[in-house]
Amino acid sequence: MPASSGHRLVVAVGVPYSDALRREIAGEVARVAPDAEVRDIAALVREERRLRREALQGEALAKAKAEMDKQLADVDVLFTLPVVPDLPARAPRLRWVHFISAGVDHVMTPELVRSPIQVTDSGGITSAGMAEYVLGVMLLFAKRLWTYEQQKKKHEWRKEDVIPVELHGHTVGILGVGAIGQEVARLAKAFGMRVLGVRRGATARETGVGDVDEMLPSSALHDMLGRSDYVVIALPATKDTERLFGERELRAMKPSAYLVNVGRGSVVDEPALVRALKENWIAGAGLDVFSREPLPPESELWGLPNVYMTPHVSGNLMGVESPIIALFGENLRRYLAGEPLKNLVNKEAGY
Amino acid sequence: MRSSASAHPVPVVAAFTYGPWSLERRHVQQVQAVSPRVRAVEASQLFARAARGDAEASRALDPVLREAEVLFTRFVPRDLLRRAPRLRWVHVGTAGVDIALKESHVLGSGVTVTCSIGMHAVPVSEFILGLVLALNKRVPAFWSEKEKHVWRRTEREMPVVQGATMGIVGYGQIGRATARLAKALRMRVVATRRSCAAPARDTDGVDVLLPTSHLRELLAESDYVVICAPLTPETERLIGEGELRAMKPTAYLVNIARGRVVDEAALVRALKEGRIAGAGLDVFDEEPLPANSPLWGLPNVVFSPHIAGGSERNPDRATDLFCRNLANYLSGQPLMNVVDPARGY
Fold first, then answer.
1. Bridging pattern class, strands A284-287 and A258-261
2. Hey, CA dihedral for B160, B165, B168, B171, is it positive or negative?
């Protein structure tokens, strides 16, 4: 919805990354909407987040919140990453918020869902990078690089007992064939793999859907798990996917298979996963997401040798800023022209 | 070579072990099935034990070698020529023959040598992309953080390979398979090839193909320099101090070919001084890598113990290739992958 006459469009930028990135965003806004005001609120977003995280109530937080309220009062458009609490109430003019991430479930608050604010995300751009991450983890396991890394630490040269296997000719099962899952499928096909997929919308077994050799309905999940050498979870977190992957699913996997989760930690029953890894129901796991983040220091996952893990960074991609900024610029043009936005999120469904 | 199209029986010794795998009964049957003239003898375990210094196994090999006309193997005893007077042809089940034939003087002796170049294109190209992605995705750093139970996410970014340039030094079958995978990952690919006469664009699966004389150009523009060249007098120490200095400080070196193609001391200096970002190394000057090598301790090195060609399918692939070559041999057709004693590959 275009801004009403007499009001200068205010675009707030709360992306916490580099100053250079925010300058680029400002440049894009200036190109598309030369009269708009660009307001950098990243420092405030960061500060309020820090204070909340450290649970420092009282004066400092109240002061930070008040300053943020002032900055948000006349904002029309927000480009951000982290969630700003109580956004609809604090930004009464806000009509559109763009998130730099691929998924928005973790930033979607009930107030935001209820509000008329349009939400867009950067899905599709980051998916290629996340698929690279998935493939990298699969190769890390297939090529036994994780074992050699442990040998390296011990200055140990052992080559006869741990031999790499090929991805070629093996099977990957993708749970959640959205933008990321499709890209994983494309790469897996290029590596000569067989690709199985489970998609919620699928009603019956379909063959040759894009790069997916066999697309299966949710009811055939266990069939897929029993046939896969790598199981990739690329599901968004919604109430339907919470703890979808539990003991029964882990036991349905081959003992030689690896689990890769770049979706959301809440999809997997983590205590069951720890048991699966300790008792070798499965061969290993590559995890970027966890049921609690930061992963608590007492989590057993830290100490398991058959786990590769990263701190939820598979989507924080370097080098994808330009296409994301271009998407935002195109959407800003559409917004001003009253056209439908690209990458609009279905707020009820959560993706 | 003596005409082998005559109808005499041909004693074939098949000896192939690889990690936990060695030739199975079905592989020997496959060799035997090439022709009724074949007298296949399986000697994988004898070869492996003899190589480990088992004198009894070595003695048991003597009558087998004495009769052998054809040998299919991954390595040979140093005194093979003396012990196998009837030997006409050795088919080596690896891409390079330098290690397999080490000190045996088989090459240039009149015995034909063929190799399995091409057999490892799938596993090695996968391994290369594994190393590239491990370096790109900062695996060593995340690995250390896991060991220390450190969660460091704030303002942490994950690089991508899409749009980055891979430079392949030595564009043979492994290079070509690697380029195909890199293109699937949306990388730009530049390669040098010995037989390339002049620079060419968009050809043979790469964005730019260069003659070897343009190596410095490739080094200067690549984010991942991948060594796929065989070890020959021309390629020994091909990547030295000057070549490493031609690389970008943000670039990585990946070597799955032979350690001696790279000047290892110069590489260690470049890595220590941060003149390149890191390396993925499967091969080394001296193997096993000596316990006192500084490479063990460098955090920006992803290491593997000369195993890029490793695959559960090697016995199958090697046997398939050997059997096709054996059919050629028996019918007097030219053999595939004959090693030129002068070039060494």
1. parallel
2. positive
Cβ atoms within 10 Å, residue B299: 11
Q: Reduced to 3 states, what is the DSSP secondary structure of residue B340?
A: coil
Of A186, A312, A317, the CB nearest to B157: A317
With bands split at pLDDT 50, 70 and 90, how would you rate the model's confidence at A241?
confident
- Kindly state the tokens that stand for A271: 């205590």
The reply to whether A264 belongs to the active site is yes
Give per-residue pLDDT as tens, B95-130. Answer: 888 888 888 999 999 999 999 988 899 999 999 999
ipTM of the complex in this document: 0.89
Question: Are residues A136 and B137, on separate chains, in Cβ contact within 8 Å?
Answer: yes
Task: Report residue B331 CA to chain centroid gap.
Answer: 29
- The pLDDT of residue A140: 97
Tally of CA atoms within 13 A in the half-sphere of A286 that contains its CB: 29
Whether the Cβ atoms of residue B186 and residue A129 lie closer than 8 Å to each other: no
For residue B184, which residues of chain A lie inside 8 Å, CB to CB? 186-187, 190-191
Q: A336 and A33 in contact (C-beta within 8 Å)?
A: yes
Residues of A in contact with B159 (CB under 8 A): 317-319
Q: Return the bridge partners of A39, or none.
A: A12
B82 neighbors B106 (Cβ within 8 angstroms): no
Quick one: DSSP state of residue A339?
A: P
For B130, the closest chain A residue by CA position comes to A139
Backbone phi, psi, residue B203, to 5°: -135, 145
Q: By percentage, how much of chain A surpasses pLDDT 70? A: 93
pLDDT of residue A84: 78
Block residue for tokens 């010794």: B13
Domains defined for chain B, CATH in brackets: 10-119+311-330 (3.40.50.720), 121-303 (3.40.50.720)
Written as one letter, the residue type at A247 is E
Q: Are residues A229 and A256 in contact, defined by beta-carbon separation less than 8 angstroms?
A: yes
A141 and A283 Cβ atoms separated by less than 8 Å: yes
Question: Is A7 among the residues known to form the active site?
Answer: no
What is the residue type of A240?
Answer: D
Average pLDDT on A238-253 reads 89
pLDDT of residue A237: 63
Phi-psi region for residue B344, left (φ > 0), alpha (ψ -120 to 50) or beta?
left
Alpha-carbon span A339 to A327, nearest angstrom? 14
Q: Which residue of A has its CA nearest to B141?
A: A310
Q: Please give the interface size between A and B, counted as residue pairs whose CB atoms are below 8 Å apart.
A: 170
Contact state of A191 with B312 under an 8 Å Cβ cutoff? no
How far apart are alpha carbons B115 and B72 in whole angstroms? 10
**Domains by residue range for chain A, with CATH:** 10-125+320-337 (3.40.50.720), 126-309 (3.40.50.720)
The Cβ of residue B244 has, within 10 Å, a number of other Cβ atoms equal to: 23
User: pTM (2 decimals)?
Assistant: 0.82
pLDDT tens-digit profile of A109-162?
A: 888 889 999 999 887 778 889 999 999 999 999 999 989 998 999 999 988 778
Write the single-letter amino acid at B211.
Answer: P
Question: Residue A205 phi/psi, 5° resolution?
Answer: -60, 125
- DSSP letter assigned to residue A117: -
Residues of chain B with pLDDT under 50: 1-3
Q: What is the three-class DSSP state of A3?
A: coil
Phi and psi of A336, rounded to 5°? -70, -30
Strand A258-261 and strand B17-18: the pairing is unpaired
Does A294 sit within 8 Å of B153, measured CB to CB? Answer: yes
